[in-house]
Amino acid sequence: MRNDIKALRKAAGLRQEDLANRCDVSRQTIIAIENNQYDPSLSLAIHLARELETTVEELFHLD
């Protein structure tokens, strides 16, 4: 599963650390998700989408 987190995070002017703090996860978790090395839980995916002002469906894409 790929995602648009990095592009949306940068467009929002957020650092990885900022997004991690807002979602109550580590920066390493954000890095792993952005690099498609980790698929987040549903609750984290929803939280990420809300923080990036989008939907889960638009944030994550099945390959």
Strand and helix map with partners:
Layout: E1 2-3, H1 5-11, H2 16-23, H3 27-34, H4 42-51, H5 56-59, E2 60-61
Antiparallel strand pairs: 1-2
Molecular structure report:
This protein starts with a strand and ends with a strand. It is globular. The protein has a two-stranded antiparallel ribbon. With 63 residues, the chain is mainly alpha-helical. It contains 5 helices and 2 strands; from the N terminus they run E-H-H-H-H-H-E. It has helices at residues 5-11, 16-23, 27-34, 42-51, 56-59, and strands at residues 2-3, 60-61. Helices cover 59% and strands 6% of the residues.
Q: How many strand elements? A: 2
Class per helix and strand makeup: mainly alpha
- Give the low-pLDDT segments: none
Report on the biggest sheet. 2 strands, antiparallel
* Number of helical stretches of at least 4 residues: 5
State the strand order across the main sheet.
1-2
- Global mean pLDDT: 97
Q: Tell me the span between the first and last alpha carbons.
A: 6 Å
Please tell me how large the radius of gyration is.
10 Å
Relative helix content:
55-70%
Based on Cα principal axes, name the global outline: globular
Strand residue percentage? 5-15%
What letter string, H or E per element, gives the SSE order?
EHHHHHE
